[in-house]
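Figure 2 data, in text form.
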Amino acid sequence: MRKSKDRAPFKGLRYWAAAAPVLPGLGLAVIPNGMRFTGWVLLGAAAALVFGLLLHDLAKGRRGWRICERVYLTGLALLLVLLAGIEAAVIFRGEADNTGIPVDAVIVLGAGVNGETPSAALQSRIRAAAAYLEEHPDVPVVLSGGQGPGEAITEAEAMRRALWTRSETQNARYLLEDRSTSTAENLRFSRAVLEEQGVDTDAAVIAVVTNDFHCFRAHMIAQKQGLHIVEVPAELPWWWLTANYYVREAFAVVKTALFD
């Protein structure tokens, strides 16, 4: 009788403990707070734990299920090692300080706009761009980003308004690229804008201003396009949003490597 109870799936506190991430995961995934991806990760982790426990219970005394359990655990371990390695590379690239490297041009990558108000990610990029441009006053600057759902103006225009000064000389530096809808398009279309200004983009060193968590993927895409870039990382003001985006970025890097 005891043996039968031990084999019964979905009984015991282990399953409740494994399913514990479901409630916070649902909360983060459903409530608009910028942490939706973390919510989905928690839901996925709960599903993986519960499935692993179920396989473990089914594998008791059953050779076929034991093989399934080992394959599952091996695959899960390899996935976690891969994601951890990518995460380490993303963090390392996002902490690099390239401000002292001479550049021939600057590209500021767009991010979301709420109506006409820059999102937290875009505001941080604008701040980083403003500080960087003060140190590099004589290079052309492309503000890159089109108009997406919920945006009353283009991301490029939102950046232009925020960076606009009383100096016409400085304002003349700002070149708008307002068609792009992805990082790959940001870089490709901005390259064309710079070439129209006489910049040899095959030989130029280009500073790309983006969020710290996005630097690694921006570098990947730039390499694919034959651009030589240095990243200027912008930090978000809230650590929990930063953590959310760093987690999401590891998965985005896999997507970029496979499909972009």
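Caption note: The chain is about 60% helix and 10% strand.
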